[in-house]
Amino acid sequence: MYNQDFPLIFEHSKPGRTSYSLPELDVPDIDLDAELGERYLREQPPELPEVSELDIVRHYTGLSNRNYGVDSGFYPLGSCTMKYNPKLNEDIARLDGFSHIHPDQPEKSVQGAMEMMYDLQTALREITGMAEVSLQSAAGAHGEWTALMMIRAFHEANGDFRRTKVIVPDSAHGTNPASATVAGFEAVTVKSNDKGLVDLEDLKRVVGEDTAALMLTNPNTLGLFETEIEEMAKIVHEAGGKLYYDGANLNAIMGYARPGDMGFDAVHLNLHKTFTGPHGGGGPGSGPVGVTEELKAFLPKPLLIKKDGIYTFDDDRPQSIGRIKPYYGNFGINLRAYTYIRTMGAEGLKKVSEYAVLNANYMMRKLESTYELPFKQHCKHEFVLSGKQQKKLGVRTLDIAKRLLDYGYHPPTIYFPLNVEEALMVEPTETESKETLDGFVETMLRIADEVIEEPELVQEAPHHTIVKRMDETTAARKPILKYESK
After folding, report:
1. Which Gene3D superfamilies does the record match to this protein (predicted)?
2. Is the CB of residue 360 less than 8 Å from the CB of residue 381?
């Protein structure tokens, strides 16, 4: 049931062992029975592990050594922009003036932190071409929902309650239709054409007086730039709808193109991706939202503003959609993003886009003759291959991904986007060297040879990892969610 080479923390436990030493209490004891009542007290103490400090340090250090992250190796996870997180960001985030403050402090005592956040908002306004930005959203999908709620509030403020539908491309991130649904809209799909771009004729077919917005990523999820974006904006705007920009792929166009200039009305950004905040394992994230002047009144409250030289939170916003998160965003991630922007500068951010696009196209052209390339034009920061040829030999994309583990690589995103059969979605980011890219390419080519010569080797992978191939159906349908002693 468990991997005996690495016992669980409960299996280190021995009665009476402790990993802490506390001074004697200098406050009076509390009678919990009297204060809380018996109904709120446990009948038995919690079954927590009893371990020494040395045991617990070794246990969690061992776990961290078995983990894979961007500091461990190449992480070509398409759509997720797993780029290197500069350690300077961590140094800045640990400065006492930032790490030892509390969000409930009086505004006058945290003016420096508020200035940083205001300057970050200013920078993001310039990068996106938006009129105003709020840092309150906790992550990307949260930013999507926030933007859609503002668009909904805008339509309703104008007495337009007919707009119940949000148009989403068939190559969109899965969170787009989900966010539209949670915001109370019906998601309507617009098809891609044979070039992997939004089909304008299909867009004209689905758009109408019930259209609230079009949700779009540009470059799209195939890593392709929507060259007819201005025409799309015209179609949607003439129908009375709004354009929402999913900022997940901003890494490809920083310094070269701005959503505001393309005609978008609202945008969210993933600071934990594009701007090098660490992410993974569920968080933390940061998904600031920017809007045009027309939507500014509907931003979440409070909004950080500068008034008479003082930074303050403006809560007097009668048309606001309200507060969407306690306090004002994930401060530590916002601070890391601010550090990155200040470190890179305008020219540095342009270089990020250049190298991200160069790296992706370099890898794509190296692999296109071995793995099918559905769309032949140059890509931006990521590209999508298909394992259809390998599937004909009995090897699935899933098998290829698991075989990559044997060679020490984190696999790319697989089976996404949904409009590419046996999809392999690769994003190298700008931070990887040519040697790293070449090593991954050579491994992918080697696996392609194995598919032909020894298909069983790939079908049964991984062979050299700590945990071998799992029964994924059972793991998904009958997960073990708690520790059970043997």
Report:
1. 6.20.440.10, Aspartate Aminotransferase, domain 1, Type I PLP-dependent aspartate aminotransferase-like (Major domain)
2. yes
- 430 in a structural domain: yes
Q: How many domains does the chain have?
A: 3
CATH of the domain at 444: 3.90.1150.10
Sign of the alpha-carbon torsion through 52, 58, 61, 66: negative
pLDDT at 282: 61
| Final residue of a structural domain among 321, 343, 365 | 343
Q: What are the Cα distances from residue 182, in Å, to 166, 217, 225?
A: 12, 19, 28
Q: Is there a single domain that holds both residue 357 and residue 316?
A: no
Dist. CA 211–CA 173, nearest whole Å: 20
Where do we find the tokens 């799309």? 232
- Rounded to the nearest 10°, the torsion over CA 272, 277, 281, 286 is -40
Higher-scoring residue by pLDDT: 408, 484? 408
Per-residue pLDDT at 3 exceeds 70 = no
Domain that holds residue 19: 9-66
Cis before 302 (ω within 30): yes
Q: In what order do the strands lie in the sheet containing 413-414? A: 383-386, 423-426, 413-414
CA distance 196 to 224: 7
Query: What is the average per-residue pLDDT within 47-57?
Result: 93
Q: Where are the beta strands (DSSP E) in 6-122?
A: none
Query: 368 and 336 share a domain?
Result: no
Six-digit token string for 20? 């802490």
320, 254 Cβ separation under 8 angstroms: no
258 shares a domain with 141: yes
Structure tokens at 138: 């906790």
For the whole model, what pTM was predicted? 0.91
| H or E segment to which residue 342 belongs | helix 331-367
**Which residue did the predictor score with more confidence, 284 or 231?**
231
> Is the same domain home to 364 and 322?
no
E-only strand ranges, 366-412: 383-386
E runs forming strands in 338-482: 383-386, 413-414, 423-426
Residues counted in the chain:
486
Residue 26 maps to a domain: yes
DSSP state of 52: -
pLDDT at 480 exceeding the cut of 70: yes
Q: Return the sign of the alpha-carbon dihedral for residues 188, 194, 199, 202.
A: negative
C-alpha span between 359 and 81 (Å, rounded)? 13
Element at 268 (helix H, strand E): strand 266-269
Q: Are residues 386 and 339 in the same domain?
A: no
Residue 83 domain-assigned? no
Q: Taken in order 263, 156, 189, 215, is the CA torsion positive or negative?
A: positive
19/101 same-domain check? no
Whole-number Å distance between alpha carbons of 24 and 5: 39
Compute the distance between CA of residue 223 and CA of residue 427 in angstroms, rounded to an integer. Answer: 9
